[in-house]
Fold this sequence. Notes:
There is one protein chain. With 512 residues, this protein is α+β, with helices and mostly antiparallel strands. The protein has helices spanning 43-47, 50-54, 57-66, 107-114, 151-163, 172-184, 200-208, 211-214, 220-228, 262-272, 300-307, 333-359, 365-380, 389-421, 459-508; strands at residues 37-42, 76-86, 91-101, 117-121, 124-129, 133-139, 142-147, 188-193, 230-239, 243-251, 284-288, 291-297, 430-434, 439-440, 447-448, 453-457. A twelve-stranded antiparallel β-sheet has the order 4-5-6-7-3-2-1-8-9-10-12-11, with helices on both faces. It has a two-stranded antiparallel sheet with strand order 13-16. A hairpin with a 2-residue loop joins strand 4 (117-121) and strand 5. The protein is globular.
Amino acid sequence: MNRCLLLLVTFSITMPTVVAQSAFSGMRYRVPTDANTLVMINADKMFGSAVADRERWSARRKAAYDAGLTALPPDAKEVLLAGRSDLEFGKSIWEMALVRLQGKRSVSTVAQRFGGAMDNLEGRTAAKLPNDRYIIQLSDDLLGTYTPANRQDVSRWLRKTDTTTSDAEYSPYLAQAFKYATEVGTPVIMAMDVADTLSAELVKSRLEAFEPLKESGVDLGELTKLITGVKGITLGVTVTDKTVGAVRVDFSADAGLLANIGKPLLIQVLQRQGAMIDDFHDWTPSVSGNTLMLRGTLSTDGARRVMSILELPHELSDAMQLASSPGSDPDGSAKTIAAQQYYNSVTTLIEDLREKPKRDQVKTFGQAAMWYDRYARKIDNLPILNVDEELLNYGSNIAELFRSAEMSMKGVGMRASNRRASNNAGSGGYSYSSGGYRVGYGYNSGGYGPQGYTATVGAGQASLREKGRTDAIITRQERTAGAASVQQIWQMIDQETAGIRRTMTEKYQIEF
């Protein structure tokens, strides 16, 4: 989840008032009390809808999972993710996931297939996996995962949540979001508690550059106070014969100031965070009490973008691998199949990321950069058992190239800002003249023709103009350099991919 949930907000529409009592059973109290992010997906309800049947979501779901584009296992029934993120620096402190699957699942099989070490935590079978993650058998059909894989922290998490029976110290905002999924019945809920994360100085500086505010008549100080008191943000999606949703922002005071500027302000923030979906432009805004909302229909592409936020570990499902342990592959096909699956997963991710800026109409380097890190982590989390060592090195190199591109794009703004801050371009002022002519006629008479003139620009104004001009040049230079760097990285990605394709085709004598 990490920073990708930074600006997702909820939705409230007419839905069945009660869902099955078993929905998300056993999951509520497994969420640690210091969590500030929560995602809940009722996959049975979502993929059993009319629109899912009409658009063949189930078939596409498995294909996307096999290609590594989503980490939602094809046989998942209910999914809950929670975490604690450092919202100031965009870093994850811990993440956990609970997935209820169809039928029984064994952690020992997961360990065998993904090279994990078996363990026992608080009387439960567990496996510590190479990617710094524990998988825990909570019941026959319920698996949990926790990262980082600190044995003491994971044991304490299990022990504490084994005995928790109340909402003591639990974030009220996330507790309310949980009810949207279990009591209201919303199939997809993503919520974040952001209370106390914004400073008035930061909010004010951002609002001063918000153009719609200047013509709205809304007082800057009052609006700053309102936004500084934001409590939480949630996204909710439901599916029946169509996919509909809403984004919701909750404040600690009346949100009436946002009646006319709330939608453009929210869209600007979503764009800044790289979480914008084009559908939001057509959604209807409303303000009720302390809440700002946008409601509307999600297109197929919009729904895909929402689901792409998920970062579940592939180890929670064994659908990717055919061989469960060494010796169970008498015809020797497991290594070939694993090589093909891994290669196809990496190259599919490459092509999806290549088209993403254009497809999602990304307008800034900062918006694009967040996707490079996310796709690098998708490669890191691909199954590796039985995969050829050269292919694993290729995948690792591609992930590092993605991260290099991310740092290059993030550095554009920083480098430009630093150069502009030290840009002391000045001018001593200047004058310029436009000639004219005056021709006399008669004795002591007046003249005719245009009058010449001289204009002078003082040193102060001339310096401001010069700094503005050179600042714009600096920005263009850094953007050009950043774009060139990213283009060079993509050339390296293409070269590596072409090389590994030739190598694997020759090695396995099948087409890659």
